Amino acid sequence: MPARPGAAFDAFLETDAPRAAERRDWTPADGALPALYLSHGAPPLFDEAEWMGRLFEWAQGLPRPKGILIVSAHWEAAPLMISSPAAATPLVYDFGGFPERYFKMRYETPDATAMARRVASAMPDSEPLHQHASRGLDHGAWVPLKVMYPQGDLPVLQLSIPTHDPDRLMAIGRRLRPLREEGYLVVGSGFMTHGLPFVDFHHPEKVPGWSADFDVWASEALARGDIEELARYRSQAPGMPYAHPTVDHYVPLFVTYGAASEQEQAAQTVIDGYWFGLSKRSFQLN
Fold first, then answer.
1. What is the value of pTM for the model shown?
2. Type and span of the H or E element at 39
3. What is the CATH number of domain 30-285?
4. Which residues have CB under 8 Å from 26's CB, separation 6+?
5. Counting beta carbons within 10 angstroms of the beta carbon of residue 282, is it exposed (0 to 12), middle (13 to 18) or buried (19 or more)?
6. Which end of the chain is more exposed for a tag (fewer CB within 10 A), N or C?
7. pLDDT in tens, 145-182
8. In sequence order, which residues have a C-beta less than 8 Å from that of residue 247 and are 6 or more positions away?
9. pLDDT tens for residues 241-260?
């Protein structure tokens, strides 16, 4: 653990974050924004300068969206739900064992009522969207977004994961596809491998075979745009079930693929590598 938790984030706020003001707003001439899947990390992301830099530059290369809709591994709730649209809704600190600083962080985004109405209108009668009265963003949303969009001046809403079924998640993503054409950023937030019970935290440089094997399998399927292979992960992916003892951090990618303009397209990997042996692979689709 660093001597001062979040010191790398403090340096980022001074050196890189001010450049976010240089971003130009999305216009219809830009066309649809990409659909993203990102490995979101946890509060210690704020101690990882290189990782933060790559997340920030990713957002820096995109037009500034009208708003962000994010599906996080950390909110599994059925029926389908959306977080509170009220401005400055308190965050969810759904973690433990970290320095006190991370429990005091804020990400006070503006009112997202209009965006919530638009998202609700995209859902069919068979998949009605329920409004949660008070739930804010959990760390699968606010941790990466504090780096990617440090000004906190964009409306942000979080969508729950109501199922692990790839087909149903793809269908939800397809309903969100028009939002990309209107200047909204659609994000699936998970972790490409997430076998926390099997990580050797005393040797963060070691990459377990189950993590490396799963990542290679996923990267090859993503490069082919082979969504059918990605959907067969339980039976086909090497490293299972160690790579995903629970699948909540993997399945957000099906919302990302559903929201893409074409279902079977090669993903553009933006971030790769490992953190404590877990794959950080993150990608975007047009």
1. 0.97
2. strand 35-39
3. 3.40.830.10
4. 33, 63, 64, 65, 66, 183
5. buried
6. N
7. 999 999 999 999 999 999 999 999 999 999 999 999 99
8. 164, 233, 234
9. 999 999 999 999 999 999 99
